[in-house]
Specification:
Layout lengths: L2 E6 L3 H10 L7 E7 L3 H11 L3 E3 L2 H6 L5 E4 L6 H10 L3 E5 L6 H13 L4 E4 L6 H11 L6 E9 L6 H4 L7 H16 L7 E8 L5 E10 L3 E8 L8 E5 L2 E5 L8 E4 L2 E4 L18 H13 L9 H18 L9
Parallel strand pairs: 1-2, 1-4, 2-3, 4-5, 5-6, 7-10
Antiparallel strand pairs: 7-11, 8-9, 9-10, 11-12, 12-13, 13-14
Helix pairs in contact: 4-5, 5-10, 8-10
The chain binds NADP nicotinamide-adenine-dinucleotide phosphate.
NADP nicotinamide-adenine-dinucleotide phosphate (NAP) binds next to helix 1.
Length: 334
């Protein structure tokens, strides 16, 4: 039986996710419906992607009995209310990153998923790329010895994108880009909470962070450092340094197609999209979609690879970094 997807929002990432889904076998994944705030947007999206049902409200999608899981691609200030809408309607959910604006909101979402006994995962797609699977295998087998340092960066010039710069749209580099560096670091350090976080950054006049540099210290004198920026194009690679060697993820570290282990590079190709994409390598979202299918088939309520505690840890670290850099969203004051 195919996993029946509902797509919530007709925006840029929803387009790419739908294209990614269609690179998977049709007997495994079907897009059944799309919902947008405006019916015309949903209808246009449905036409473009040959989806049979289009709804002019998210509530109608929540009431559709033929949906196994909803993909939420709305901007992050609306993740909380949208996640709650679907979890309370007993729908399984894959929600775009960041799961919410802060740890308090993440806790609310996780509690609602548990209460309603539904599956929920933050769409940290990088974790499911073949390169990430290989990194976890290499680390488990201690191929580079004991890891002592992780370095990562994600920077792109996004000053022209309203949702990157405006506070009420959830702007800020840490929540949008830094999260990829943080998830990489916490994946390598196996979900461990850092002993110490030191962050410094530059903010825009809108009150959101533009460029942030963070150092993290973990137990047993293990370190990490990352830079994120919505103003600058950075090299965007990531490196794991162990006592016996290194693993490098060449750009783009959030959607990688190659891995360099002790100097030896291996390529991992992605399928071609059937329509032009808004973001780089988006057909790689197929791996997180397949993870959702496998979890649902097993009756799991969270993914062991991107668990609820992983999402909470990310949100807590993002809160602490924003506190040190001085970025406060209205959601922090509620
Ligand atoms: N995984 C990735 O690689 C990746 C890449 C980009 C973005 N993202 C994440 O995906 C989410 C959406 O990003 P995007 O670039 O796709 O954004 P977008 O196209 O600007 O907006 C996505 C949708 O959010 C809703 N929306 C936009 N502005 C709104 C407002 N002022 N009030 C209420 N709803 C609003 C709209 O839904 P309707 O269509 O229903 O009107 C819109 O289509 C973000 O949380 C982002 O972090 C992930």
């Amino acid at each position: 039986m195919a996993t029946r997807w509902g797509i919530c929002s007709a925006g840029r990432i929803s387009h790419d996710f739908t294209v990614a889904l269609k690179t998977l076998p049709a007997q495994d994944h079907q897009v059944v419906a799309v919902a947008a705030r405006k019916l015309e947007d949903a209808q246009e999206f449905a036409k473009k992607h040959s989806i049979s049902r289009a709804y002019g409200s998210y509530e109608e999608l929540a009431r559709d009995p033929d949906i196994d899981v909803v993909y939420i691609g709305v901007i992050h200030p609306h993740h909380l209310s949208t996640c709650l809408l679907f979890t309370n309607a007993k729908k399984n959910v894959l929600c775009e990153k960041p799961l919410a604006m802060n740890a308090k909101e993440v806790q609310e979402i996780l509690a609602s998923a548990k209460r309603n006994n539904v599956f929920l995962m933050e769409a940290v797609w990088t974790r499911f790329f073949p390169t990430s699977v290989e990194i976890r295998r290499l680390l488990a087998q201690e191929e580079v010895g004991e890891v002592k340092m992780v370095r990562s960066e994600f920077g792109a010039p996004l000053m022209h994108v309203p949702r990157s710069v405006q506070k009420e749209l959830g702007g800020g580099a840490v929540l949008d880009l830094g999260i990829y560096c943080l998830q990489f670091i916490t994946m390598v350090y196996n979900g461990e909470k850092p002993e110490c976080i030191q962050a410094t950054g530059v903010c825009l006049e809108t009150g959101v962070d533009e460029t942030v540099v963070v150092t993290l210290k973990f137990s047993k004198n293990r370190m990490a450092v990352f830079t994120c920026s919505s103003g600058l194009q950075l090299p965007n690679d990531a490196i794991i340094v162990g006592t016996k060697g290194t693993i490098r993820v060449p750009s783009n570290m959030w959607c990688p197609t190659s891995l360099v282990v002790n100097g030896k590079e291996t390529q991992y190709s992605l399928p071609e999209p059937y329509l032009p994409l808004n973001f780089v390598n988006s057909t790689g979202m197929r791996y997180e979609a397949e993870e959702v299918r496998q979890c649902l088939l097993k009756g799991l309520k969270e993914s062991p690879v991107m668990s609820h505690s992983d999402s909470l840890l990310l949100a807590e670290m993002e809160d602490e970094i924003r506190r040190q850099v001085g970025v406060v969203y209205s959601q922090d004051c509620q």
